[in-house]
Amino acid sequence: MGNVCFCGTTSTSPDQPEPATAGKAPPQGATNRRPATPPSSQQGSSQEPSPAPGANKPGPKARPKATTKANPYDWAPPAAAHASRASASVSASRVLDGVVPHHPRLRVTDKYHLGRELGRGEFGVTRLATDRATRERLACKSIPKRRLRTAVDVADVRREVAIMASLPDHPALVRLRAAYEDADAVHLVMELCDGGELFDRIVARGRYTERAAAAAARTVAEVVRACHAHGVMHRDLKPENFLYAGKSDDAQLKAIDFGLSVFFRPGERFTEIVGSPYYMAPEVLRRSYGPEVDIWSAGVILYILLCGVPPFWAETEQGVARAILRGNLDLQREPWPRISEGAKSLVRQMLQMDPKKRPTAQQVLEHPWLQNARKAPNVPLGDVVRARLQQFSAMNKFKKKAMRVIAEHLSVEEVEVIRDMFALMDTDKDGRVTLEELKAGLRKVGSKLAEPEMELLMEAADVNGNGYLDYGEFVAITIHLQRLSNDAHLRKAFLFFDKDSSGYIERAELADALADEAGHADEAALDNVLREVDTDKDGRISFEEFVAMMKAGTDWRKASRQYSRERFKTLSNSLLKDGSLRMAR
Amino acid sequence: MRIHPASPTAGGKKDLRRLPHVYSKVLELPLPADTDVQVFEGPDAFHFVAAPAAGARAAATVRVRTVRIHPGVTKVVVQAGAAERAADDDAASDSMELDRWRSRLPEPTCPAMAVAGYVDGQLVVTVPKGPGAEEGADAGQGEVTWRCGGGGKITGRLVVVQ
């Protein structure tokens, strides 16, 4: 790969007096001193930066920290307009040159319409991209050049694009379709994965059954195998970096974000510390590692899938690093005694402290527990998972309440469909649906839902926990399943909760929304909702946060390993066929 | 400036959270993650310049704190406010808050020698360079010293990187 080279306007600051000697306090009023503005260069052309100063500098010197603070005012920023003008010319059409075929004179919007935001990451925003000619839906990740702060950042993007372009066509790897660059950003057009993150599904479920965990772990191991076979070390495997291609529970899981990936040759050692807490291998912290670090990260993901929390955990970054290096793997605490020996065996192998003893990705895929994934037990939900499901339900109380508010604004036609469906279920006409009535009603239309899944549906939808679905609760779950929400409905629901019209739902208003019949709201439930929904941590919920919550994937369907939108469509189609309902969308 | 409430998990509940990346050298500013910060590279140092958010009142003082996460992993945290609030600041900065402005620092820098202050209303953080800079082994006791050259005068030609 070519070296990154930046050209731009240079200016020379006038020499300043040496900073005060050790121990001598700066004179009074120093903090108010305004240095002279350095003269700006009048040159219109760019030139190479000066060579690295290493060769001309004295050797390294030992300096006590306390005495080495330079005066921060020796340097002053140039005028903003000047800097902006310089950076605009510097950054145009530079990042992708020589990395990947791209279209330096075409705009990404010439071929694609950029729509709603799908996600936001450390370096950029991902939007829905629709091919103007074929109407195909893709995702466009735009990395603003103002986020490329140093040569290291630029090298990272160039390497990421080179890696994505070099990886094979594989169902578990997101495909790069096209790359564009303009004066402001690099745009990467990729396959669309709109089923949400693995992270969100883990948080929603609490933990996976062994069968579901094995399916996800197989995909993760397959990603590692494909990358390593092509000389790519991922270095940042974590649930946030896996997306589902669709919303069904059996949708394909894909790896995204190769921002920290690197090409490697067999036997090559790396020393650069990069990764994410919880998932980082101990040898990364020891600054000598190879591709085995990805097996460790995959092992951490498997541990989390099976029990819901990370194996190496602490409140601080220092604590997490120490826990990783200690390597104390807890397979004694609930729920591990109830997990099969095969699953625990694989976890132990993947989280071997000695990278030489760790299995390769191919060996992971050949492990008996993964080989027999379809026979892995569907462990019933334990107490820990039930508690997490209750947390999930508590978080979603607000969302379900909002859906009931939306119901009040439905059109007559929309209401009629739902009312007829409710009437079909409510066989004793008492105005509410019991679990038995729900089961009988679903059986009547030939539903393939198993009883545990019906119970999960009842539990998720039954907001007040009285064991029945009343009409409002039935409407809420139906609205959610049919995705009838549109922005006008969301706005009305938001205003319903924002009683003082401040533009935010304050904690007190949230408490009102979640209060039970006695008028009491559980403080822990409030904290959980705010932690999940209040993404900017200002202590209240904005309309944007409200919309993100309503459209997020953390809904009850994630708690059912088999139920999917397709199943619900089957139910809807069956109802249509027997002529008793006309579906509105 | 917005005040971030303490993390609700501070009580020690073990759960799965999104966390920022780990790099060997990181600079963290007391600003939201999407703040527009300009970076200027000089021959002796990198300079990070952040204009205050519209309407926000810039803090009068800042301090620079170096966090040794692990030998070889250093985070420089620029914090608003006086040093007297060290205890609270420590807790806040160690909470692994996700929405903070962070930048990976290039390898030839000496994060422990970073300085920060306000110039014409803008927050300026200067991180000196050093040729082949690398942290020496921690002696385990006594004062930690840094092997790092070029930390003196911070002047020279300015190259704009944005």
Automatic annotation (TrEMBL), chain A:
Which keywords accompany this UniProt record? Answer: ATP-binding, Calcium, Kinase, Lipoprotein, Membrane, Metal-binding, Myristate, Nucleotide-binding, Repeat, Serine/threonine-protein kinase, Transferase
Region (Disordered) spans which residues?
1-86
Compositionally biased, Low complexity: which spans? 39-59, 76-86
Reaction(s) this enzyme catalyzes, per UniProt: L-seryl-[protein] + ATP = O-phospho-L-seryl-[protein] + ADP + H(+); L-threonyl-[protein] + ATP = O-phospho-L-threonyl-[protein] + ADP + H(+)
Q: Under which EC number(s) is this enzyme classified?
A: 2.7.11.1
Q: Where does ATP bind?
A: K141
User: What is the annotated localization of this protein?
Assistant: Membrane
Looking up PANTHER family in the UniProt record yields: SERINE/THREONINE-PROTEIN KINASE (PTHR24349)
**Protein name stated in the entry:** non-specific serine/threonine protein kinase
- What is the species of this protein? Zea mays (Maize)
Name of encoding gene: CPK9
TrEMBL record, chain B:
Highest taxon above the source species: Eukaryota
Q: What name has this protein been given in UniProt?
A: SHSP domain-containing protein
What species is this protein from? Zea mays (Maize)
